[in-house]
Amino acid sequence: MKITDLLKKDTMILELDSDSKPEIIDELVAKLDEAGRLNDKEEFKQAIQAREDQSTTGIGEGVAIPHAKTAAVKEPAIAFARSQNGADYESLDGQPTHLFFMIAASEGANQEHLETLSSLSSLLMDASFREKLLEAESKDKIIELINDKESEGDEEEEAEEESTSEDHEEAYVVAVTACPTGIAHTYMAADKLKETAKEMGIKIKVETNGSSGVKNALTSEDIERATGVIVAADIEVETDRFKGKPTLTVPVAKGIHEPKNLIEKAANGDAPIYEGGGNAAGGEEGEDGSFVGGGEKKGFYKHLMNGVSNMLPFVVGGGILIALSFLWGINAANPDHPSYNQFAGWLSTIGGGKAFFLLVPVLAGFIAQSIAGRPGLAPGMVGGLIAIQETGGIEGAGNGSGFLGGLIAGFLAGYVVLLIQKGLTVLPDSLDGLKPVLFYPVFGLLITGIIMILINPPLVSIYVGLQDWLNGLGDLTIVLGLILGGMMSVDMGGPINKAAYTFGIAMIDAGNYAPIAAIMAGGMVPPIGLALATTFFKNKFTQQERETGKTAYVMGASFITEGAIPFAAADPARVITSSVIGSAIAGALVMLFGITLQAPHGGIFVILLVNSNIFGGLLAPLLYLVAIIAGSIVTAILVGLLKKDAKNT
């Protein structure tokens, strides 16, 4: 596929009317929409702006390449525009921008489309080509220039590959480039590094990690031969393979604008020796001019998000399967109940007995892996398993220390393995092969396991104490509804949430059906409220979060509070505060309306089973919905008011 299969005359503007960045974006988006390339003009514009908020796509040299990959694009396309006088696009070099290429990639764009879109950035590295585009008198001439340049580029690439494979000079640099969208900056950095290295007479091989996958992958022979490594990336890339090599870890923009400096350092081996420890992304310049980054320097948030993102499929898949099992009746999964249905039982077993059972171990395992690399995974998962199973014989412990214990286990395992890795550096190099297969797993499991066995009973005691405190409240009041509803949102499936839920179950056994109604309403509010927020306050969320919001509607309606965890993990203070207030209001309203419910779970599927001690059975379902919707709206509004605009896609 050629670039001109995506860039057509109906998406070209030979002279822009606009001269400021916001107006230019508006004009280019309007051109794509007018040509019928977009599904949702406003959503696409938000995706473009979110990418600009992360870092300007005005790359310098008079060029800007705003881009986005989103479901708002009907079909992949490129819009082109020129400004002969130049416009202020907040370019990285501070100079006016003359050429604008807006890339619109659809969410389901195939590999051929993505490779074509990506190749555009490579062509724009040629100054003479940019000059010809500025001088072109017609749209037909622009298409001709691009076709000619693209054919020329294919020939040069073939010649370069042959040269790289045959040449074995002493100075040899390898590099990896990657950016969040994998469409433009990834390839621009790669081409700039290759072009500069050619001018300097230094051989280089560059691996690109783009939307269409890894290209020109570095082999073990390449890395062994290299005098230095450059990692120019704004997303995580695998770096353990560079262990023992001088490695510069920098943002992808530095690969575009400071290629000579990077290549000189890498060619001379003037860089920190990479000691391993996982993946790396980005980096900052140190006081001595060297660059540092990646490895274990990623911070609490990234470790937590690695755990949450890997846990999410278990939450979504398991939660929806549990909810579907209630279609055959609230007790249809119980083999001892007259309404038992075998298929409903299978759904409940797969979703609740298996998928949900793995939530905490998976969370802990991938937090540990983020901290310590692959050796952290096994100790983290075992630590998470201990958190939910080892209770020290405490009565009423239920699922151990739950979500809270899993978080502690994940970070504990990760840093334990890091200490083990550092401690074993004193061993001779001949034993390096035994470290990942013997020393790390044995000592990691042993130390993490013993510590978790010792600390988990006190964590469980906190959980059980909460249940006892709730039992001591006695009278069912609006205040109790506030407390129970709010507790469901504090840790969204963790021990506080489970303490409230267990109290509700205990009250059902005692013949009191009001608390569980307040608890279920409070637990449904966070995911529904966050889903509403992603719908009505789109600028506050990334594209990925908006997609997660669609699933959160289903999970909230199914009483799967864990559906709000991804949002809470990304912005805990604002999201949890908003959710607790909304859930507390829902719980209080349920108590105010005198709502009762005999089903312990089910969400929207058991709405017709609710009753009211005050208003009777006919109005009860409607009033219950009013309470849930009111709490969800409050949460959504608070999130919209408190959260900052999203900074990346």
Provide an overview of this structure.
- It is found in: Cell inner membrane; Cytoplasm.
- With 649 residues, this protein is an alpha/beta fold.
- The protein has four domains: 3-151, Mannitol-specific EII, Chain A, CATH 3.40.930.10; 167-292, Response regulator (Rossmann fold), CATH 3.40.50; 298-469, no CATH class; 473-649, no CATH class.
- The chain has 22 helices and 17 strands.
- The protein has helices at residues 21-34, 41-54, 111-123, 127-135, 139-166, 185-200, 220-225, 252-257, 259-267, 299-325, 342-355, 359-372, 377-389, 402-423, 435-471, 478-490, 495-509, 514-536, 543-557, 565-570, 572-592, 620-642, and strands at 12-13, 58-60, 63-64, 67-70, 77-87, 97-106, 172-178, 203-210, 213-215, 228-233, 237-238, 247-250, 279-280, 284-285, 291-292, 595-596, 611-612.
- Strands 1, 2, 3, 4, 5 and 6 form a six-stranded mixed beta sheet that branches. Strands 9-8-7-10-12 form a five-stranded mixed beta sheet. It has a two-stranded antiparallel ribbon with strand order 11-13.
- Helix 14 (402-423) runs antiparallel to helix 15 (435-471), helix 16 (478-490) crosses helix 17 (495-509) and helix 16 (478-490) packs across helix 18.
- It is globular.
Defining traits:
649 residues; alpha/beta; Rossmann fold; 6-stranded mixed β-sheet; 5-stranded mixed β-sheet; 22 helices; 55% helix; protein-phosphocysteine-sugar phosphotransferase activity; PTS_EIIB-like_sf; phosphotransferase system; PTS_EIIC_2; phosphoprotein
